[in-house]
Amino acid sequence: MCDSSQSAADVLIIGGGPAGSNAAWELGQAHHRVILFNASNDRLRDPDVNAGSTRPALDLLLHSRRKTPDVFHPFRQEIGKESSEVSVHNQRITQVQRLPNGFFQAEDDVGHVWTAKVLVLADGAEEILPDIDGYDTCWEQQRILTHPTEDEPRSLISSCLAVLAVGDLAELTMALHTVWQARQFAASVRVYTHGDEDLARALETRISPDARIAIQTTPIQSLQPGSDSPSQVIVHLTDGSSIVESHVYHRPASQLQGPFARQLNLELTESGAIRISARVPYMTSLDGVYAGGDCASLGQRTLFKALAMGQGLAAAVAARLERGNWGMPTILFSSHTMAAPLFDCLIVGGGPAGLAAALGLCRAIRTAVVFDSKSYRNPTEHMHNVSTWDHANPHDYRLAARKELTEGRYNTVTLADVALRKIWKLDSGEFEATDAVGKVWRGRKLILATGVKDEIPELPGYADCWPKSIYHCLFCHGFEERGAPSVGVLAIGPVANPKPAEHLSRLAHNLAKTVTIYTNGNEELAAQLRPSIEKDQWLTLDNRVIKQLHKTDGIPVRVELDDGTTKEEGFLVHAMKTTPRLDFEHNLNLELSAQGTELVASPPFSETTTPGCFATGDCGMAIKAASMSMSNGSLAAVGVVSQLAFDEKAK
């Protein structure tokens, strides 16, 4: 047993794959004492020992069925021969813990222990295979491609590539990305949605009929290896039919291979990978614990990325060893931390504007934290007017944008899914935020992307019909209901004015044969409108008082008037009053616009009346739409980055 600081190694590395082996080699060359454990991952063992089990990890990493899982066996042997500082062990580590002296201890399945100053997790990931009969057999026989170019490109050019849109690929965003990626390498693509009719319809609306992409909605009964080629798969459907596919693509979801992240209570990303610090390369949420390779990048798994991570790990660990100080552990970014690291920017709001601002900060290599309370305005099922995302689910967009920020090539943004209860500007000019669980965050700049609150009119039934059947913007909504016999415009609240009432009516006429303006008994407004609309045969003015709005099973709304008559409208148009959403205590000197619908923010970068504080998206713009919020968020990021650069010059 090695539990004293005198006998402890410098580094324990769990995982003998590309990241772990490369890190061990680099650290050994720098004369650090390293213990490398290789047997923590079954899939890196000799293929003869592991025959018939799961697919070799390196085979997956290299995107080629022709590669073998023992690629790194001679490399590890060479490490042991060339570097006296590195010892390679095949023991299976089952338990890791941090000792009271700040060191780390690893224990194998028979009770042997090893101790070191720093712990590196490079133990890989494992696939979660879908519950389809025969899938596991095809997977073990390496008939399922995990990358469109995994096979020889020549064999794909003139053939069809089948895509199994199940598991993670059943998400619309992932399915579309995969299908278009596959189409680049195959003459045609067939997508199996495995009975998911909603996914099939969503794909059909986004795929051109001449794109040579077919969608098969019938559920899959089983997969069977074919006999004509090593890659052939026979897809049996529940309707009794079968389709012979020469190439089948699917990338199963992944999960952490070992239990060590759970044992150390490390924070994870949304996909389940170990979260890496935005400020310290390859550092996890616990000081002294580093992670690299598949376990830190479940969605981006390639050999070359893992090898690069190995080098990065070695450099980061070497820097930590130089620093020393092995006292009590420091939690870097968990919800229980007492320390408040200084970010370049705090971004309040995880919608289109906030996410766009975060991406801009990533591009400038600036650190930021995005606070997302998960409460969004107008919870509709579709977003529009966003190129490539038109008619997509906003949730899918946010999910893809979040992954882009944290699981791709960027590592300077932290996502905090928590509401804030207080934001304070300090005398130093920095901003301090306290979240709902009491954690304190500090930032040099502040971006408010909080959105707005809709003030529901006191009209009976209005709340029941909003937002499904009452549209505030006819560019965002209405196209899907085009051709309606009649639609109505509610000339109440902000629309109880001749100009907006007529404007919305004429826009609505593009989508309906006739339009009715309901003034709800406002005689003065009716008198002002009549001269402008009296020549329009398609436009009717109804000055009766609305008694109640009644929702239906679909989109149409029944308008009940005070005289007892009712009329069904295809949908209603109304822009209600909005106010900026600031659901936290603050000392920010913010001003509202004259209309009270947004914060005063100076163009083009949207800085508010509080220096260093920016308001972007709906809370800082008169026109509120997703596409404009994205653009506005990007501009706010430019403003923040520019200010930071000149602040640093002044110092």
UniProtKB/TrEMBL annotation:
InterPro entries: FAD/NAD-bd_sf, FAD/NAD-binding_dom, Ferredoxin-NADP_redctase_2
Sorted UniProt keywords: Flavoprotein, Oxidoreductase
Pfam families the UniProt entry points to: Pyr_redox_2
One GO biological process term: cellular response to toxic substance
Record-linked Gene3D superfamilies: FAD/NAD(P)-binding domain (3.50.50.60)
Domain FAD/NAD(P)-binding span(s) in chain numbering: 10-302, 343-632
Residues of the signal peptide: none
One of the record's GO molecular function terms: oxidoreductase activity
PANTHER family membership: THIOREDOXIN REDUCTASE 1-RELATED-RELATED (PTHR48105)
Family: Belongs to the class-II pyridine nucleotide-disulfide oxidoreductase family.
Stated name of the protein: Thioredoxin reductase
Species the sequence originates in: Aspergillus arachidicola
